[in-house]
Design goal:
212 residues; alpha+beta; Spore Coat Polysaccharide Biosynthesis Protein SpsA, Chain A; two-stranded antiparallel ribbon; 7 helices; globular; Glyco_trans_25; 16111_t:CDS:1
Amino acid sequence: METLGNYLGLDLDIFKAVNKYDHVALRRLNKSNLGSGVKACYLSHYTIFNLIIENNYENALIFEDDVDMELNITDIMTEVHRNLPHNWDMLYLGHCNEWGSNYLKTNLTVHALHTTGHPQCTHSYAVSAKGARKLVEKLNIDNPKDHIDVDMPALIMNKEIISYSIHPQIVVQFKGVNDYSDVSPQWEAGEPYPLMNSTMHFLGYDQDIPDS
């Protein structure tokens, strides 16, 4: 993540995620029957929402640490921001198998904005200050019933969160052949969601080469 940020000139704040073995941090979620990896992921994202509120950020872009992005992501986001409706709470830059989204007519030249349908994954999305407050209020952090990438879309589909998505996605997961999720280890790594101009490939990284 730092390599991407440095090359692309992104001013990133790196936050350490909650570890699934951190029983003290996860004690808050003891009522939940979810696995420790799912709880840790949930709490990590929820903590970021609180930081957005505490630091009075107007908005924040959240990346997980296993991503790849378009080489010209700054230019894309500048154009997206000019076309993004003012009422937005969330904006998905990356998503897995989103269904039910609807095209939104804008002046974007290459990518398109959609009203968010039902996205999966949380590897890249933006949250406005208003959206962060809604998420902290509406997500049941003390006793979550499902993965956070299920609970957030549920709020979107119930029209409690106003969300948009970029298509095709401009940030994807970049998992190597030996990389398996701590949250859902049964899923195979490295699902192919190609970018137009991958920064990781440009820098010489290849997810198909196993670690030695």
